[in-house]
Design a protein that fits this description.
It is an enzyme of class 1 (oxidoreductase). Residues 14-468 form the Aldehyde dehydrogenase domain. With 474 residues, the chain is an alpha/beta fold. It is built from 15 helices and 22 strands.
């Protein structure tokens, strides 16, 4: 059994427990002890006290060294982390290894960023009567950052919150998804091994109730959350004066103009739509294809999709494993059936076997269908023809979401025009919407979220400017 870790001490004696289930075979792979109310309060209070007693004054080079050592240790133990993700999330092993590699990179970016948090000198004499004055601005840490993380990238997305927070000099109270707590537990233990002082990173195991309590707690200064739109709305309403970063839903559009390389675009969009069974915030959900290449693209897309290997995520050759739960697979299957009942065509896939939903390509869809208007978070993609540039921009922007998009064209002028007009937090040219690096700003507009991740940009959100003015001698 694994439990919360508060001030270096593990709490795993609770009678209130949850089984961690392997989504592929239904086996119990671990058991977590949920934090009691007393343990939760102890965790938050200890994070607050540790910030004021330890972390607030820790020099940048020490924070940087700890992050670098954690990266080195993770690299040494990469297989252990990868197999934990396979067991708890059902993510195929080669994708799990990729997540660990990215996580190492996040830690190294954060280690460097810790040493480059700068301020500025304000030209006080630019104002009347400002002569003889000096103004300095320092970026200072906020205090306690609550990291509330999802199941789909249990290691990498957790580190996109934890690593920048530590780099900036904050303490962290970490609430992972209850379906994927094993890698979270291993991560906290790894930070301890790297020399992070007790209390800088506290782990509290729990359900949504713990998350709600973090959002409203007076000793928490910032909430960093990745998850669903309804929960994000609730956090925004409840957080009060806290700083908030919300990474929420999307129904990412990908646009193919008639000069795109059909085979290469199809290859990339198979990965973009179906990696980790589509359980990716920026998964390619809507694929708009210019009319004169629509049919050849669709034919090639179906062909390449049908070549995917579906099955056991522990198998090195597996491309598509299970969804996180049978409940989620049933929900996605129902969305497919609802669309088909209203005239949509299932070109391939659409079949469910337990937690596995076959990669599904839909056509003849309408903009008000759930598979278009909402976030499917499943291996479902719709392929839609368009005529003009103006049409496809309108189709793409017709959404409550605006996280990331992909545009395929050889025309750089058109690429820039379209990118400027798409209402998205990020636009990739000749790359799928699903592609993300760990050092660029990442976040959405509209109802896809608030704030930005990407280590440098997260650090900015996890600090605040403090002005110090001097009146010099006459």
């Amino acid at each position: 059994m694994i439990g919360s870790i508060i001030n270096g001490q593990e709490f795993n004696n609770s009678d209130n427990t949850i089984d961690v289930i392997n989504p592929y075979n239904g086996e119990v792979v671990s058991e977590i002890a949920l934090a009691s109310d007393i343990e939760f309060e102890k965790g938050v209070t200890n994070s607050y006290d540790t910030f004021h007693n330890t972390m607030k004054d820790m020099p940048a080079h020490e924070r940087s060294d700890i992050l670098r050592k954690t990266a080195d240790l993770m690299e040494e133990n990469a297989e252990e982390f990868a197999w934990a993700i396979v067991k708890e999330a059902g993510k195929p092993i080669h994708f799990s290894r990729g997540e660990v590699q990215r996580s190492v990179q996040v830690l190294r970016f954060a280690s460097e960023e810790a040493k480059h948090i700068t301020g500025e000198v304000v030209p006080m004499d630019a104002a009347i009567d400002g002569d003889g004055r000096l103004g300095l601005v320092k970026q200072v840490p906020l205090g306690v950052v609550a990291a509330i993380t999802p199941f789909n990238f249990p290691l990498n997305l957790s580190l996109h919150k934890i690593a920048p927070a530590i780099a900036a000099g904050n303490t962290v109270i970490f609430k992972p998804a209850e379906k994927t707590p094993i890698s979270a537990y291993q991560l906290v233990k790894l930070f301890q091994e790297a020399g992070l002082p007790d209390g800088v990173l506290n782990l509290v195991m729990g359900t949504g109730e713990i998350g709600e309590a973090l959002v409203t707690h007076d000793k928490v200064h910032k909430i960093s959350f990745t998850g669903s739109l309804p929960v994000g709305r609730s956090i925004q309403e409840s957080a009060g004066f806290k700083k908030v970063t919300l990474e929420l839903g999307s129904n990412s559009p990908n646009i193919l103009f008639n000069d795109a390389n059909i085979n290469e675009a199809a290859k990339q969009l198979v990965k973009g739509a179906f990696s980790f069974s589509g359980q990716v915030c920026i998964s390619a959900q809507r694929v708009y294809v210019q009319q004169d290449i629509y049919e050849p693209f669709l034919k090639e897309y179906i062909k390449q999709t049908n070549e995917l290997t579906i099955g056991d995520p522990t198998d090195e050759s597996t491309d598509i494993g299970p969804m996180i739960s049978e409940e989620e697979a049933k929900r996605a299957k129902q969305w497919i059936d609802d669309a088909a009942e209203h005239g949509a065509n299932v070109e391939t896939g659409g079949e469910r076997d337990g937690t596995i939903l076959k990669p599904t390509i839909m056509t003849n869809v309408e903009s008000n269908m759930k598979i278009i208007a909402d976030e499917v978070f499943a291996p479902i993609v719709s392929v839609i023809p368009f005529d003009t540039e103006e049409d496809v921009i309108a189709y793409s922007n017709d959404s409550i979401y605006g996280l990331q998009a992909g545009v395929f064209t050889k025309d750089i002028d058109r690429a820039m025009r379209v990118a400027d007009q798409l209402e998205m937090g990020g636009v990739w040219i000749n790359e799928i919407s699903t592609y993300r690096q760990d050092n660029h700003p990442y976040g959405g507009v509209k109802q896809s979220g608030v704030g930005r991740e990407g280590v440098k940009y997260a650090v900015e959100d996890m600090t605040e400017p403090k002005f110090i003015g001097f009146k010099l001698k006459d």
